[in-house]
Design goal:
The chain is 18% helix and 33% strand. By secondary structure, it is α+β, with helices and mostly antiparallel strands.
Length: 210
């Protein structure tokens, strides 16, 4: 009889330990499967503050600490915000200020445009003098495409660009051979749906000094 009581107590203790682990894993109603998955369909209204106990998948967007941030990996029921799991902000290498950071990689079908700003003085008979106009006179311009992106990635890219609204600059590290952090403005962008859960975004990134 004592052996049965002891075995029952052991089983009860194991169940209690499992319950404690489950509560740490998910703060909702007790089991991992009961954690709600964040749903985002509207870039204007569906991005809310980070909430413990929700399932956030890669590219889900949240607001935390005064900034919009985007999930870098799939996470199950976080109780606390872990900065390493989220992107969307970075420290500006020029002035040390925290700024929005574009984290998505463009497709390979991109192009780079150069148009140095030059002041030309003509003297007649074909002679002219050319002088660089200002300090930042040859800033980069990229025509980027983001092809074959799923709904969540499309949502986050469009949300990021919409929040900047062609006014606020952001940080971005371009492709080779320009691989260094630079400041950009996105002047215009477009989105097209190829088929279900497959989208293409095209965007023009223009380097700015400030």
């Amino acid at each position: 009889m004592k052996d049965k009581i002891l075995a029952f107590k052991k089983i009860k203790a194991v169940k209690q330990r499992y319950a404690n682990i489950t509560n740490v894993y998910c703060s909702s109603s007790g089991t991992p499967s009961s954690c709600p998955i964040e749903t985002q369909n509207d870039i204007y209204n569906d991005v809310t503050n980070f909430s413990s106990g929700k399932i956030y998948k890669k590219n889900h967007a949240v607001k935390q600490g005064g900034y919009f941030k985007y999930a870098l990996i799939d996470k199950e029921c976080d109780l606390a915000f872990v900065a390493a799991n989220w992107g969307g902000i970075a420290t500006d290498n020029i002035d040390g200020v925290t700024r929005p950071s574009f984290i998505w990689k463009p497709s390979y079908q991109d192009s780079t445009n150069f148009e140095p700003k030059v002041v030309k003085i003509s003297f007649g008979e074909g002679y002219e003098q050319r002088v660089s106009n200002g300090i930042n006179n040859n800033l980069l311009k990229f025509d980027y495409s983001f092809e074959d992106r799923n709904q969540r990635e499309t949502f986050s890219i469009l949300h990021f660009l919409n929040e900047r609204n062609s006014k606020e600059m952001f940080l971005f590290i371009p492709h080779f051979p320009y691989v260094t952090q630079k400041r950009f403005i996105c002047r215009s962008w477009s989105e097209s749906r190829t088929f279900y859960d497959n989208f293409t975004i095209r965007a023009q990134f223009e380097e700015v000094a400030a």
